[in-house]
Specification:
twelve-stranded mixed sheet; alpha+beta; elongated; 27% helix; five-stranded antiparallel sheet
Length: 691
């Protein structure tokens, strides 16, 4: 049919319009109505311009097309399309229209499908447009019927008043949050949480299982899409089809867990944060946190890398260590050390207990100067085991198979473990619990830090110069900015409990004395006492009180004085009682068998934090130490860190005669120790500063 043979009459238009409405009911309303990003005025102009040249002209020459009623319908409905479950988009113009409109509508359909979705469609009116109007010809008096574009909406697309706008706004928010969720949360994180749920290791996890499986499928499909428009339309489809729970999962409690895991946060820490939000205080997780998939992957990696024999560990003995890796050896106490000739000396007489306050004529110097200038002249060295050093006990650990390859960042296969398996510093543990440690003054305490469960409720207190007390009942001081930002009331078995009082800015503090103490709020049978740290001016001062604290009793730790912008400190925590730890008498000079740096600084290695170890005579651990810590492992285990952490905790470290245990000191942490040396029969006492 030629263009000139087309017949554009009201009857032709009405037939087209009625067929369009049938198409709308049959092919569009079963989907979700959305708008595409298209200027409806531009769409209207295209509609008019797409007609054959022969009929183009002013309004009176094409009364069935260029009219305000139809223009208003285009404005309200022209860019509305139907979005189907399979992602297919259907427009108003995608049907078998009369021949006069077929080419025009094909162009409009193609144009709309090229545009991205930009919003949900919802109307406050059920009827859009005018079905028809009657017009009288002024010359003939004849009444003419003019039909127009007109749509009657099903009730589910109609919301009265402001509710339509609210629904549209909510849909847009869901789409935006879903995009953020998919860009933030990794597949591995979702799969890990699903594994935890499957193994019964996540509190109320079953409630999330179905939603997480849907989210995982959405994430996998989204990752396959590279075209920007297709990604946008996919996000609209999934957010509209799946609703609030899926779309806004990032902002829900389970979403916090997923985000933390996606950011490579430790699994134990991430799950603990989740449980703090959703679990009751008495909830106890049934077992350790690693999944079967993680276990299988780690096993395959260990076999692949040839580390099977490296897993089995024991306490190191004097025969394991080479003289080149030591900086001092008492040859009388260290027979059998590799690379030495055994020298016979008389056994050392047992030293009398000496109180630190009775030291006279001590020589003060840095630990580096002592090692460089005094240690080479000493035949014997003794370390004063001050009670404040109770947390410094450590053991050196070796592989059972001396030929096993090193799993660590350094070249040898030795590791070490501090008392109570404290791999993380107290400062790190406080930070992991949400405490602020980037401050001018910090007072932190820690308890429940060994294999003996200590369920006591200890409280950190600070009495300010004004007399105001910072503690659990009044956590914040508006006068000084002091704040108790970590408060533990029910310690969990196997998880160190910490509390933290911090002063962010000393310029906001008033001058005067700040007394820090620990109160036994609820005695529940734990007799292990506590450890404490005070930090200011980039120096950390450590304290230990390893004794039972009766109900209601206070233990003063120290008073920090602020004057003219400078801090000073008076210690109150003194150890008057003698106590034995690891077969070593505290508050005594104990013979040192050998001194060495930590294995990460043996030979040519120079990796991470450097520690100085004093291996003490007759020191024998009563801990069950970790075989290793994840921070020791080389990068080959990065993908298996959760399982390797559990293996490090679970694998037994075998006993060894004459084990190398003693006290260790991080050379990055400020500390003061007392040592005594014997040099050509002369006794000298040194006060050494580690910084």
């Amino acid at each position: 049919m030629k263009m000139s043979e087309y017949h554009y009459t009201n009857e032709t238009f009405k037939a087209m319009r009625d067929a369009m409405n049938v198409h709308f009911v049959d092919n569009m309303v079963d989907g979700i109505l959305v708008r595409v990003d298209c200027d409806t005025e531009e769409l209207w102009e295209q509609y008019l311009d797409n007609f054959p040249e022969e009929i183009k002209g002013v309004y009176r020459e094409r009364p069935y097309h260029d009219c305000q009623a139809c223009r208003q319908w285009f404005k309200k409905m022209g860019n509305v399309v139907s979005l189907k479950r399979d992602g297919i988009i259907v427009t108003f113009f995608e049907y078998n229209a009369p021949i006069e409109y077929a080419s025009n509508f094909e162009k409009l359909d193609s144009f709309l499908k090229s545009k991205p979705i930009n919003n949900l469609f919802m109307s406050s009116d059920q009827k859009i447009g005018f079905e028809h109007n009657l017009e009288q010809n002024k010359e003939t008096g004849r009444v003419i019927r003019n039909d127009h574009f007109f749509t009657e909406l099903p009730s589910r697309f109609v919301k009265k008043g402001v509710k339509a706008g609210q629904a549209i706004g909510k849909a847009k928010t869901n789409r935006m949050v879903l995009e953020s969720t998919l860009n933030t949360i990794t597949e591995d994180a979702i799969e890990t949480v699903l594994d935890l749920i499957d193994e019964g290791n996540l509190y109320r996890g079953k409630e999330w299982e179905t939603s997480l499986k849907i989210l995982l499928t959405i994430k996998q499909d989204f990752n396959k899409i590279t075209d920007e428009k297709e990604q946008n339309d996919f996000l609209w489809l999934e957010s509209l089809m799946n609703g609030d729970t899926i779309s806004r999962m990032k902002n829900l409690s389970i979403g916090t867990l997923l985000v933390n895991l996606s950011n490579d946060e430790d699994l134990e820490v991430a799950v603990k944060k989740y449980e703090q939000v959703v679990a009751p205080s008495n909830y106890k997780r049934p077992k350790g946190l690693f999944t079967k998939k993680m276990l299988e992957n780690a096993k395959e990696k260990l076999i692949e890398l040839g580390y099977g024999d490296s897993l089995y560990r024991r306490f190191a003995s004097i025969e394991d260590i080479s003289v080149k890796d030591t900086i001092f050896v008492n040859r009388n106490l260290s027979k059998g050390i590799k690379g030495t000739i055994d020298d016979i000396f008389n056994n050392l007489s047992k030293q009398a207990v000496t109180r630190k306050s009775h030291f006279y004529d001590t020589i003060e110097m840095s630990i580096d100067d002592f090692i460089d200038h005094e240690l080479p002249k000493a035949s014997e060295v003794f370390l004063y085991t001050d009670n404040n050093l109770a947390g410094n006990f450590m053991s050196l650990i070796a592989p059972i198979d001396e030929n096993a390859p090193s799993m660590f960042k350094w070249n040898n296969a030795f590791s070490w473990a501090y008392r109570h398996n404290v791999a993380d510093s107290m400062k790190q543990q406080v930070k992991a619990m949400g405490g602020d440690v980037d401050v001018d003054l910090r007072f932190s305490i820690r308890w429940n830090n060994d294999e003996h469960y200590d369920s006591n409720d200890l409280d950190a207190h600070c009495i300010e110069p004004s007399g105001f007390v910072i503690y659990f009942h009044q956590k914040e001081s508006f006068l000084t900015g002091g704040y108790l930002d970590v408060d533990i009331t029910h310690p969990e078995p196997g998880v160190a409990a910490v509390e933290n009082i911090r002063f962010k800015d000393k310029n906001k503090m008033e001058d005067g004395e700040y007394l820090f103490k620990v109160n036994q709020y609820a005695y529940r049978g734990g007799d292990g006492g506590f450890e404490a740290e005070i930090e200011f001016d980039n120096n950390i001062y450590s304290f230990s009180y390893p004794y039972k604290i009766p109900q209601g009793q206070d233990v003063k730790v120290a008073t920090v004085t602020l004057k003219d912008g400078r801090f000073s400190m008076q210690e109150h925590l003194t150890a008057e009682n003698n106590k034995t730890i690891w077969n070593v008498k505290m508050n005594d000079f104990v013979p040192v068998r050998l001194m060495c740096y930590s294995p990460n600084y043996w030979g040519d290695d120079n990796i991470g934090n450097k520690h100085l170890f004093f291996m003490l005579q007759d020191c024998v651990t009563d801990d069950r130490p970790n075989a290793w810590y994840n921070e020791f492992l080389n990068s080959e285990f990065n993908e298996n860190n959760q399982v390797m952490e559990k293996l490090g905790k679970e694998l037994q470290v075998e006993n060894t005669e004459q084990q190398l245990s003693g006290m260790g000191f991080s050379l990055t942490k400020k500390e003061t120790i007392i040592v005594k040396t014997i040099e050509e029969g002369n006794e000298r006492i040194f006060k050494l500063t580690i910084s």
